[in-house]
Amino acid sequence: MEGNIILQIGLVVIGIIAGGLSVTLIKKNKAKDVILKAKQEGENIKKEKILQAKEKFIELKSLHEKTILEREKNISQLENTINKKEQQINVELNKVNQSKKNIEEIKSAFEKKSTSLDKFKKEIEDKQASYTQKLESLSGLSVNEAKNELVETLKEKAKLEASAYIQRAQEETRIVAQEEAKKIIIGAIQRIGVEEAIENSVSIFNLSDDALKGRIIGREGRNIRSLENATGVDINIDDTPEAIVISSFDPVRREIARLSLQRLVLDGRIHPTRIEEVVKKVEKQLDNEIIETGKKTVIDLGIHGLHPELIKIVGRMKYRSSYGQNLLHHSKEVARLCGVMASEVGLNPKLAKRAGLLHDIGKVPSEETETPHALLGMQWAEKYNEKPEVCNAIGAHHDEIEMTTLLSPIVQVCDGISGARPGARRKTLDDYIQRLKDMEDIAYEYNGVNKAYAIQAGRELRVMVESDKISDDEATKISFDISQKIQSEMTYPGQVKVTVVRETRAINIAK
């Protein structure tokens, strides 16, 4: 039994082993088939790739051969071009060689000429030296002495001829310039015509009734003393009917006193306390009026961008006068004249108006100062950022500084025109006499001047010279020099004519 079981188990094992071997054999056969098939497919792919590579090689070879042919063609063309250039260069080199040969020939000829010229020059110098020795022996002067004498003679002659030429040129220029200047000045004056009135140092306050004088004077004069102390003016109450005279050299003080009196009379309450109160109010009111006057002035003249402090200074000019001429009226007139003249000569009329209006601002300082008003005005203008042209015109209108722009002489001329109008200013007799004396003293500074007279109210200076010391040409030069010195050193309205008289007299006595 047990033997059968073992036999069966053995048979089963043998069957299993035999089945496994058969399966293995089958798998090996299949693997061989797969490998064989793969080898065949690989051979096919290899053949295809070789065929494609051969086709690509043939294509690239054809393209390469084509490129080589094109390059050979280009190289051939370049060789032809190079050959042509080489031929041209050979032609140019032949020309250059020929030119060098010509230059050498010219150089040789030039050296020969130069040698002959040097010989000729030496001969001329030798002859000149011999002639110079002969001239020195004949004249008794050396070459340097003769040169110096000739130079001095030519200098004197040139001075006289230059003076005569300058005189003629000035006369010709003066004829033309005077006509043009007259046209410009007359046109400007006609367009800016104004009435002139002399400012006085007194103001008249009119009263409706003489009985008010007693109230203004007050008990034992206390009211009038209070008013004089508060305003700084002199009040004269005399026998003039219905009038009180207010006297002061400061127009602002006179105006404050006049307005204060007007308010006190209208109010009816006149006593020291009320007087002080009214004067303070009037001072404040006048400050506002000064500012408004300045604003109105700059608006009327078309001036923009002026600093508020300069506007206030312009307003204060209403209450200042110069030689009796109201300073604000004078400055406005100068501004308008400057605008017209600047337009005529092609300058900026707005800038000219600005300089004309501000040229005398230095005459209204709040405190006393020793600085000339032109320089003080220039300092103020620079402080408040005015343009350099305007500052120079302000500072130079009385020649305190040098004029650096064309605007400066226009302002100076217009200032003179406004001040020289008949009736515009009141000059003292002493100033007038001193100006004439200074003019005559300038003439006496020149040698040969015998007498000098300032005539026609200082518009002409007649100078008598000694005929035996001064020639006609020298007289012309003296006239020119005196006119230039008067122009540079003196201040005067209009122009001064300088006439030099040289008279020769032959006197004999018959016996």
Description:
By secondary structure, this protein is mainly alpha-helical. Among the domains are: 141-190; 192-301, K Homology domain, type 1 (Ribosomal Protein S8, Chain: A, domain 1, 2-Layer Sandwich), CATH 3.30.1370.10; 307-426, Orthogonal Bundle (Hypothetical protein af1432); 429-502, Alpha-Beta Plaits (2-Layer Sandwich). 69% of the residues lie in helices and 7% in strands. The protein is built from 14 helices and eight strands. The chain has helices spanning 2-139, 143-191, 212-217, 222-231, 251-267, 272-301, 308-316, 327-344, 349-358, 373-383, 388-396, 407-420, 429-444, 472-489, and strands spanning 202-206, 234-236, 243-247, 321-322, 325-326, 449-455, 460-465, 497-502. The strands form three sheets. A three-stranded antiparallel sheet has the order 1-3-2, with helices on one face. A three-stranded mixed sheet has the order 6-7-8, covered by helices on one side. A two-stranded antiparallel ribbon has the order 4-5. Helix 5 crosses helix 6. It is flat.
Total E-strand runs: 8
Mean pLDDT: 79
**CATH-defined superfamily of the domain at 307-426:** Hypothetical protein af1432
What's the number of helices? Answer: 14
Strand order of the largest sheet: 1-3-2
Q: What's the gyration radius in Å?
A: 57 Å
Low-pLDDT stretches are 193-199
